[in-house]
Amino acid sequence: MxxxxxxxxxxCLHATSTFSRLAPTNMSEAVPTHSTRRELDGEQCRTGNPIxxxxxxxxxxxxxxxxxxxxxxxxxxxxxxGRDGGIYVVTDSDNDDPMAPTPGTLRHAAVQAEPLWIIFxxxxxxxxxxxxxxxxxxxxDGRGHDIQIANGPCITxxxxxxxxxxxxxxxxxxxxxxxMVWNPLPQFSISGGSDGDAISxxxxxxxxxxxxxxxxxxxxxxxxxxxxxxxxxxxxYMLHHNEVMxxxxxxxxxxxxxxxxxxxxxxxxxxxxxRMPRCRHGYFHIVNNVYIGWEMYAIGGxxxxxxxxxxxxxxxxxxxxxxxxxxxxxxFDEWRNWNWRSEGDMMVNGAFFTPSGEEASESYIxxxxxxxxxxxxxxxxxxYAGARSCRKGYAC
Length: 396
Hints:
Shape: globular
CATH superfamily: Single-stranded right-handed beta-helix, Pectin lyase-like
Structural class: mainly beta
Largest sheet: 10 strands, parallel
Helix content: under 10%
Number of strands: 31
Low-confidence stretches: 1-7, 14-40
Distance between the termini: 27 Å
CATH architecture: 3 Solenoid
Number of domains: 1
Number of helices: 6
Strand order of the largest sheet: 1-2-5-8-13-16-20-24-27-30
CATH class: Mainly Beta
């Protein structure tokens, strides 16, 4: 595709995005409805996004929900969630009891010991009283309904594995203090409180967060710390937030040197300031995302992370002080040897990426998790990021 044509499409996407320019109050405002987007039918619906092409074209997606578990890419591709368990239908959005979870609620489903594929039987806005601790081998699948978690503590993955979170709108999350909650072990446990993240990943692995809309939380939208690894964050729509994603607990916490995270096909939208992501120590493949402006920086880090940026579109704002994509929390003498590269990225409206360290591909093997697609693909796929308004009997 000629560069001038791609640029015109990106400018059009920037100016007339299908997404709301204000924080959405429900999913229908956050994503285009089925009636306003083209019908997806067979081969016509395929966009080149390998995740979506794996499942979204199937009009029988509701009957074949668990096929989603075979569609992940990147470092979190082995996350199977509740694929090998039964279906749990959440029917109750109101009676959240942290100490004695009520059957039919999301909390009751999330703390069960066995694998479960969790779905919902109607539109819900779930306000949690305390953070939701999710057990291993769980999928939270919001397809088919407008499912929101909002206005209270939100989701925590603590020392678990194989979790998929899909098609949920999570917003306005709040911190909580120490509280007694039912731990997924299970046993009563002091939770230790939560920071107000939408999704906090703590000492966990094989995690996939896909097609969620995340906005306006007290702390981060997605934080991964304390040795978490094998994570894919894909197809999400993020907006109206300051510190978007933190990867790594602290400069001194060396267990995060093994962290591997893929950040792919996300739409970093309006009202975002910094940390898309901010990385420490580990290996980060940032691939085929669209960034629409940032107030401070897009990608940052400290403690010598390896950052492999490929096939992204960075559209800077008109603020002349907000053009640089990257920020290092260190002196030049230290960070000039960190391996940060930009390969096949498109820079629009004066955006620029400051590379450092090695240029050779061999230096980025541990920060490579999938084949980057051309930026021309993103003019089609970006509009489908975030929670989908899926309808039974139709491709999603």
